[in-house]
Amino acid sequence: MAARPEGPQRLTPELLTQAAGSGPVYSLDLSKQGLTALCSFRAFAKLQSLNLAYNRLTTLEPGLFDGSKDLKELRLTDNSLQSLSELRSLGLLSLYADFNLIPSVEDLSTLKVAST
Fold it and tell me: CB-based contacts of 83: which residues, under 8 Å, 6+ apart?
């Protein structure tokens, strides 16, 4: 397993654009980056798979996934998230959120699940 970067890391629009490159982005792997905060993924309307596992995220900010209607797979494993309420409007097929601090599965009961 790769070592996490030292110190808090904030994902800025500039870093996100640099990571994504040019053209439509369908899959983005930002795992193991030591991220503590994220910016909106609004610019990535075609994004289908997002890996944010093994970071230091504690919250998902309101509006983070606005415009991410194509997002079907989200990996949030091994962060410090306490709520997944910002995911309610997404039609995810796969959600990986183990090893977080989510107090109960009731938080998951309101998630919208896409049909295949």
Answer: 59, 60, 102, 107
